[in-house]
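fwd from M.: "can u put these together and see what the complex looks like"

so here's what she sent:
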Amino acid sequence: MLGLMQNQPLLTSSLIDFAERHHGDAEIVSRRVEGDVHRYNYAAMAKRARQVANALDGLGLAFSDRVATLAWNGYRHMELYFGVGGSGRVVHTINPRLHPDQVAWIMNHAEDQVLLFDATFLPLVQKVHAQAKTVKHWILLCEADKLPSDSGIPGLMSYEAWIAPQATDYDWPQFDENTAASMCYTSGTTGNPKAALYSHRSSVLHAYAAALPDVMGISARDSVLPVVPMFHVNAWGLPYSCPLVGAKLVFPGPALDGKSVYELIEAEQVTYAAGVPTVWQMMLSHMQPANLKFSSLKRTVIGGSACPPAMIHAFQDDYGVEVLHAWGMTEMSPLGTLCTLKNKHLKLPKEEQMKIRLKQGRAIYGVDMKIVNDAGEELPWDGKTYGDLLVRGPWILAEYFKGEGGDPLRYDAKGRGWFPTGDVATLDPDGFMQITDRSKDVIKSGGEWISSIDIENIAMGHPAVVMAACIGMPHPKWDERPIVVVVKKPNMALSKPELLAFYQGKTAKWQIPDDVVFVDAIPLGATGKMLKTKLREQLVDYQLPV
Ligand code: ADP
């Protein structure tokens, strides 16, 4: 017997309809490429999203056609999320930090029909436009009078001129909730990039889950700043979760330096911010010397790479901001775990709580997790045993776009498919997951694994260290030994022996790195993560001290 409840497809257009009706006056504030700050509200945004949908119909785009963006976090990008997805097309957010050849490759692979881009990226678009074979319409996200006459891109249109004549009413079509809504390519550190194709259903379910109190925990009383880019995993789903709860949205545009982000937080009374550790590192470096404080910020979700303990301490102890450590990946929409304490942890001393806060957190309803050994056997949740982390759930990838890379799943005895995350982790009896490494970054010394994240976290706790990367180096006796590559704070002294001495008592002796290498910068990938592959290339002639 079937239940007798109404069967409505979960479509992203319903989020914006809801926000328009119930939170129409909640603000969306954006720092623009033009340099000024733009403000309007969900009601105005919904109208313009419908104009986008009408304009796409006008271009004759078919259902599921891909519409690409090269854009910062801002209100026009948000209009595209809803106008494109809501009308049944697929919004393809491209990471502008990728190499132009890779951008062109991705556009051809996705078969993008339209590209909409911020003025910042005109030079990039000029490089790729001859190679991008499928794009028929090139649209600059600007006012009509800002359109350059000499762009070298025939038929280039202004976004504002394109949508201005369109009607503001549009009946969002109702279709199968499993239809694709958006797509995002993984950074593809090995081989060609592969695309995750998010459905309307997965996006709406993820938005619901993300908003829960023990997940992102956002509400109509929050002012939310997604610093994490809309071109990378939909800014962790915030452009969908915020309309779902009616939160004010604040977009930083291209100004991602510490000073600009801090000033925006203060000006817009941001209560909730989301970003990768490198962004917050820049902001804290700006705030500390000037002794600046926050007047509104209460919580910040930090993920994408391990959040160093020193950062959690700084936010909590110096600024009164709660850090929510989060873990996920492109293939997971991206949220998998968030680290919020359980009731029983509140009685623990602060240091014990901190040990838990450092973990990547516990699974959200909708994400099943397990750790397995090489034979695929499930390992115990004892907080010590580590293994390959596998996940499954309704917002986790089943296969890549166009079947690239074959079937990515691993099947259990019941025939259920699990997605291998490529992370090596422990799970404790309370279900808190802790990543020790990317499987490809694991360091194996004398048959024992050393967690590069642990070694990095200790170095990051030293006041003179800005960034630290731990990598394994070949060793004749131990197979591999760890070294730590460090960027020092300018104007602060730090020697090798001092940093090595700093490790004493903080980790087992045999895990202490064999050497410290000081560098001016650690190479970062397109999503602001340390690129250890590149770092290893840079250190190809390096020899361990004997
Ligand atoms: P890409 O696949 O392009 O590198 P993703 O954002 O999909 O980008 O990266 C996902 C990976 O990032 C995870 O599998 C994990 O290794 C790492 N990661 C994400 N969040 C955390 C975290 N909080 N701590 C440690 N590693 C993390």
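replying to her w this: The chain has two domains: 13-322, 443-538.
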